[in-house]
Amino acid sequence: MPATTPDQTPQTAPRIAETVAAARSRFDSGATRPLATRVRHLHALRAMLIENETAFEAAVWSDIHKGRAEAQLTEINVTLAEISHTLRHLRRWARPKRGPVPVALLPGRARLVSEPLGVVLVIAPWNYPVQLLLTPLVGVLAAGNTAVLKPSELAPATSSLITRLVPRYFPDGAVHAVEGGAAETAELLEQKFDHIVFTGSGAVGRIVMRAAAEHLTPVTLELGGKSPVWFDDDAHLREAARRLAWAKFTNAGQTCVAPDYVMTTPDRVPALVAGLKSAIEDMWGSDPRASRDYGRIVNERHFDRLVGFLEDADVVIGGEHDRAERYIAPSVVTVSADAGRPVVGPDAAHPVLREEIFGPVLPIVTLASAEEAVKVINGWDKPLALYVFTSSARTRRLFEQKTSSGAVVQNAGLVHVASTGLPFGGVGASGMGAYHGIYSWRSFSHLKPVLNKPLKPDTLRLAQPPFTDLGLRFLKGLTRHGGTVKRSV
């Protein structure tokens, strides 16, 4: 069960059903459809963040020891950027578009009209409890839907804050928040929604997908996985090591797109380790425990799991830990590939390479070449992100063309998540669907074709019996032509 305050208890099943019914009633009233209302909702969301910045900073500090600068960078600012981008383009996105009309249906006109899906459930994780709850909400509101939010019970301070603020900033009932743990989430999943957004583990993602199937509800799943890194950029080692260390150890490694393991050739390991050590000390000091910019592990269960990885590996950087503080130092371990077993996946020889690490432990795996790294990546689930640090255009093309992942980022890590113009999503086991910017609009809208076929001249008579040989030849020529035209809306 999640932590609660005296005046804030998890919602019971009847209240959850009532909450979803209220969101449904609000949507059915049509009040959320006008463009002016959508804009007002986005401004309300922005005001909720800006007017309560200090409270959000304090909440994420309480939950996962996320410092003020990191809270601004990875939680508040990225969400505000998403809101600004959406407000800038919303009117254009919402405008009906001309649609193509087959030559066989001329004279006729077609247009594509976007309409909201209905009631959308957003289930957020604890590691980015603001961003990963509210960034999808931007698209949900922009498309004209109502929303039910489920903050993570593992980030109780943030969950409580959002639950208190939502009724204040959305008094019209366009957005509702439900607190609680697994029982409340299960009860929510029994309700009928029109779309579900879930960010978290693959195991829970399967539960969400099974529940959604009962109502034939579409889903957007962001599931993570082991995001690999290839490194061979000797000329820019210092810069690459710093970017790699930042991407890995931000939020104490508890990021779904954090670099999970690094592949490089054996001769590059000493220099890379030295570069990472220097970068860690430069960003978080010789004792990261004392830095306000370095986070903590969310709970003891995850702490114990991560310490287990350190016990079975050759630690070359860090390794210090304190269970009372849930502190694990930024740590780097080295691993040699076992020729008789897969490098990554459940059958890997080393425990640190069997599952997503989701913490501040970075394995360096030695391989003979970039081609071998491609085989490693393709030998297991498709990752959510792939990072390539190289000066070689050929090597960049190799990974881009020969592997499949949610995204490929060259010479950096994490940054694609902050790009409002790019879709964020996985592929295969790392997820399905995408959002951010216009891709959120597409995910949470239905693009409805509207076709107008005038009664005069009645060209459809040619497609109706009785048929003549001449008519059939004429129809065959038209329908097999495959051509389309666009006419003004």
Write the layout of secondary structure elements.
Blueprint: H1 13-28, H2 35-50, H3 53-64, H4 68-94, E1 97-102, E2 109-116, E3 119-123, H5 131-142, E4 146-150, H6 156-169, E5 175-177, H7 182-189, E6 195-199, H8 202-214, E7 219-222, E8 227-231, H9 237-249, E9 259-264, H10 269-284, H11 300-311, E10 314-317, E11 321-322, E12 327-328, E13 331-336, E14 361-366, H12 370-378, E15 386-389, H13 393-402, E16 408-410, E17 424-425, E18 431-432, E19 434-435, H14 438-443, E20 445-452, H15 469-479, E21 484-486
Parallel strand pairs: 3-4, 3-6, 4-5, 6-7, 8-9, 8-15, 9-14, 13-14, 15-16
Antiparallel strand pairs: 1-2, 1-21, 2-20, 7-18, 10-13, 11-12, 17-19
Helix pairs in contact: 2-4, 2-5, 3-4, 3-6, 4-5, 9-10, 12-13
Describe the structure.
- With 489 residues, this protein is α/β, with parallel strands linked by helices.
- The protein has 15 helices and 21 strands.
- A 7-stranded mixed β-sheet has the order 10-13-14-9-8-15-16, sandwiched between helices. Strands 5-4-3-6-7-18 form a 6-stranded mixed β-sheet, sandwiched between helices. Strands 20-2-1-21 form a 4-stranded antiparallel β-sheet.
- Helix 3 (53-64) crosses helix 4 and helix 9 (237-249) packs across helix 10.
- Residues 1-9 have low confidence and may be disordered.
Distance between the termini: 55 Å
By DSSP (H or I, 4+ residues per run), the number of helices equals 15
Largest β sheet strand count, sense and barrel closure:
7 strands, mixed
- What's the total number of strands? 21
Helix content: 25-40%
Residues in β-strands, percent: 15-25%
Strand order of the largest sheet: 10-13-14-9-8-15-16
Radius of gyration: 26 Å
Indicate the overall shape: globular
Q: Helix/strand/pairing class, anyone?
A: alpha/beta
